[in-house]
């Protein structure tokens, strides 16, 4: 009940949680494919325009040259399916433009993005080989054979520019590998978290099922044994009532003893259903009509707010709502610390009842789980709500803890 508040724990206007983000949804995915292609296209076309304005372009800027600059960015849209081919196309297009302009970094944007993605897919060897081949080809064309093939000397790169290009290629491959490792780590963390949540939910379901089976088994043993004994003694008493009244009296005495023992054992079994701080019911009906008495005896300041049209609820819903609020307040007394406060919101919806019990933290002497196994209070409240077709969500919120319950009440009449 303490610790940093997760982003998903912010409640909506009904006091309910949205739940953690699901992997694979639109919010949980990051696909920079289109954005990277648009960014590369802008960098390369604007860079070419600026170079032409500064007089560093050896030919007149024509639409065909803009199209050449867009070949690499457009190819980036297909880099997930053909990463090596996309890098080769982007590198070839950039070198084609480089043959008509003085050396500049802008025409390397698309090839470097393609090389980064190649490394990010885990193909480090392919990325290194592809980058090496492209770099070697560029070196041969623009340095070794620039004169024989008739390239303008102004397009030849200097030593500094060649070193920077080599470093850029190596960094792209390295960062791509880092991105792959980070992605795998994040995927593993999401998988482990999902498995842990499934395991916790399964454990809670198993605990609830085992508790129900245990109570049912004990009730069966207690009631079956004593009722069968009472039935036999009643038969004996009826048979001997006229002929042997003294023995009939003994049978009635045995019936009284057996029934008293049965009641005692049933109370003992059902006592396990109550939390240790919960008093045994003194009145036959428990419901939200007694909410004022419950909050008055809560042992801490409680603010109650009721909205919607109040109406008579089904008995099982009314009792479950009372018990859930009672257990939530018990948890506040146990875990929130001295001086904590609580608020209860009861909202009568047309076809449901919504409860929200929220508390503040002050100080906690012994954190939950520090001295023994975790309690089953939330699991019990959730099982009680689900048995009526409802739902319960509980989790930390800013400065406290929130229990949000939705119980169906039937159609609005």
From TrEMBL:
**Top-level division of the source organism's lineage:** Bacteria
Keyword Zinc annotated: no
* A Pfam family: HisKA_3
Provide the reaction this enzyme catalyses. Answer: ATP + protein L-histidine = ADP + protein N-phospho-L-histidine
Statement: the UniProt record of this protein carries the keyword Plastid = no
Protein's name in the database = histidine kinase
Q: Which organism is it from?
A: Paractinoplanes bogorensis
Which top EC class is named for this enzyme in its record? Answer: transferase
């Amino acid at each position: 009940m303490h610790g940093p508040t997760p982003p998903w724990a912010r409640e909506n206007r009904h006091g309910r949680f949205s739940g953690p983000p699901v992997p694979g949804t639109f919010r949980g995915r990051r696909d920079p494919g289109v954005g990277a292609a648009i960014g590369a296209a802008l960098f390369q076309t604007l860079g070419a325009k600026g170079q032409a304005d500064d007089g560093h372009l050896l030919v007149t800027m024509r639409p065909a040259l803009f199209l050449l600059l867009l070949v690499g960015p457009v190819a980036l849209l297909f880099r997930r399916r053909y990463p090596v081919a996309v890098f080769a196309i982007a590198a070839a297009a950039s070198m084609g433009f480089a043959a008509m302009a003085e050396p500049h970094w802008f025409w390397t944007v698309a090839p470097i993005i393609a090389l980064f993605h190649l490394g990010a897919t885990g193909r480090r060897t392919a990325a290194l080989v592809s980058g090496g081949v492209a770099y070697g080809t560029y070196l041969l064309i623009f340095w070794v054979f620039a004169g024989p093939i008739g390239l303008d000397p102004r397009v030849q790169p200097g030593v500094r520019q060649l070193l920077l290009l080599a470093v850029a290629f190596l960094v792209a491959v390295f960062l791509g590998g880092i991105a792959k490792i980070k992605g795998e780590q994040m995927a593993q963390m999401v998988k482990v978290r999902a498995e842990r949540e499934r395991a916790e939910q399964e454990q809670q379901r198993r605990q609830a099922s085992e508790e129900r089976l245990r109570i049912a088994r004990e009730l069966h043993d207690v009631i079956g044994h004593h009722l069968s004994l009472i039935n036999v003694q009643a038969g004996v008493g009826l048979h001997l009532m006229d002929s042997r009244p003294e023995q009939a009296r003994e049978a009635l005495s045995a019936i009284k003893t057996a029934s008293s023992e049965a009641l005692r054992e049933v109370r003992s079994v059902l006592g396990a259903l109550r939390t240790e701080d919960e008093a045994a019911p003194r009145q036959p009906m428990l419901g939200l009509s007694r909410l004022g008495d419950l909050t008055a005896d809560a042992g801490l300041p409680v603010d109650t707010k009721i909205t919607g049209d109040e109406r008579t609820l089904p008995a099982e819903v009314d009792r479950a709502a009372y018990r859930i609020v009672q257990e939530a307040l018990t948890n506040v007394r146990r875990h929130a610390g001295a001086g904590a406060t609580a608020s209860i919101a009861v909202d009568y919806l047309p076809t449901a009842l919504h409860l929200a019990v929220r508390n503040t933290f002050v100080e906690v002497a012994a954190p939950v789980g520090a001295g023994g196994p975790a309690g089953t209070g939330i699991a019990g409240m959730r099982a009680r709500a689900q048995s009526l077709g409802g739902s319960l969500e509980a989790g930390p919120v800013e400065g406290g803890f929130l229990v949000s319950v939705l119980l169906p009440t039937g159609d609005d009449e």
